[in-house]
Amino acid sequence: MFDLPEPGALYAALSARDPAFEGRAYVGVTTTGIFCRLTCPARKPRPENCRWFASPSEAASAGFRPCLRCHPTGPEAEGHAAITSLIAALKADPDRRWSEADLMALGHDPSTIRRAFKRHFGETFLDIARAARLRNGLKTMTKGHAMIDAQLDAGFDSASGFRAAFTRLFGHPPHEMRQPSDLRADWIETPLGGMIAIADDEALHLLEFTDRKALPQGLKRLSAHVGGRIGLGRTAVTDRTEAQLSEFFAGDRPLFGLDLQLHGTEFQQRVWQGLRRIPAGETRSYAELAHEIGQPTATRAVANANANNRIAIVIPCHRVIGADGTLTGYAGGLWRKQRLIEIERSYGVAA
């Protein structure tokens, strides 16, 4: 999957704690018998005491033990004690209305927590907590209950605050999505966070992580494309999408069997179909993908089409990495890209 660069470049990345190789390169320290991420906060070893590996399994096979500070065998965020404790607290009580005062009461510095969550997840802990509450309001609206009930279930004191939060997520105020519609939007929970799925009775039109900054814009474009025919609710396609995502994360589904409605130019659709042909457990560079779709000089256009994919995971844009093997930009967050590639390694081994 990935050829390591020369040791000098890797040692420079280790010294700088450069996250560019996160999930793609690991260092084993011969004097301690421990292997780490390149971003590990521990004191750096001398170059002659380093061995380099492309995966945790390679390091373990060579006799190295995982570091207890950076936890190289799990997602990067698992190496941060404050993050893991707060995520556990949120899962235990998703309805709780968190504040900075709550963080301080637990002994955390709010600014430190804010920076840590922004780095790992692209949003703050309070943003994540607010999204969890908003899901409750969405469920209430989907069942046809009154707006005030949805607002209260989402934990918002004011109707205006609930409307603003809903509009930031969906790109439309809630009343506009309660009209009769052909396409229906609903929330799907995954191990990597909430996703919004939009489907009709025939196909999946959109699948995005709820914290993606471009989600409201993408929803507006889709709404315009289909004449505003998007409401709340789910279809049989939504149910199949949720079931197949669950199988994917459980390691039981390397290929998705879903009908998709692609909203893009002819070129973009060729790129997206090319992405679907990359086997789980493998990656491609943008240049390699451009060559595979028959347009070897269109690397930039391929990268742009990749960034405009609106059906995450099912169209696996996370399988495209930098030419040097680094994890390049991913709209869902590099931490998710890292985790998705790690999940798919098991598929690659099985093949």
Describe this structure in words.
Helix 6 runs antiparallel to helix 7. Among the domains are: about 5-75, DNA Methylphosphotriester Repair Domain (3-Layer(aba) Sandwich); about 180-350, Arc Repressor Mutant, subunit A, CATH 1.10.10.10. The radius of gyration is 22 Å and the shape is globular. It contains 14 helices and ten strands. It has about 350 residues and is an alpha/beta fold. It starts with 6 loop residues before the first helix and ends with a helix. The strands form three sheets. The chain has a four-stranded mixed β-sheet with strand order 3-1-2-4. A four-stranded mixed β-sheet has the order 7-6-5-8. This is methylated-DNA--[protein]-cysteine S-methyltransferase. Its EC number is 2.1.1.63.
State the gist of this model.
The protein is of the alpha/beta class.
Low-pLDDT stretches? none
* Top-tier CATH class of the domain at 179-351: Mainly Alpha
Structural class: alpha/beta
Largest sheet: 4 strands, mixed
Any idea what the CATH architecture of the domain at 179-351 is? Orthogonal Bundle
CATH topology of the domain at 179-351: Arc Repressor Mutant, subunit A
Blueprint (SSEs and pairs):
Layout: H1 7-16, E1 26-29, E2 34-37, E3 50-53, H2 56-61, E4 65-66, H3 81-92, H4 100-105, H5 110-121, H6 125-142, H7 147-153, H8 159-170, E5 183-190, E6 193-199, E7 204-209, H9 215-225, E8 230-232, H10 236-249, H11 266-276, E9 284-285, H12 286-292, H13 299-307, E10 320-321, H14 334-350
Parallel strand pairs: 2-4, 5-8, 9-10
Antiparallel strand pairs: 1-2, 1-3, 5-6, 6-7
Helix pairs in contact: 6-7, 8-9, 12-13
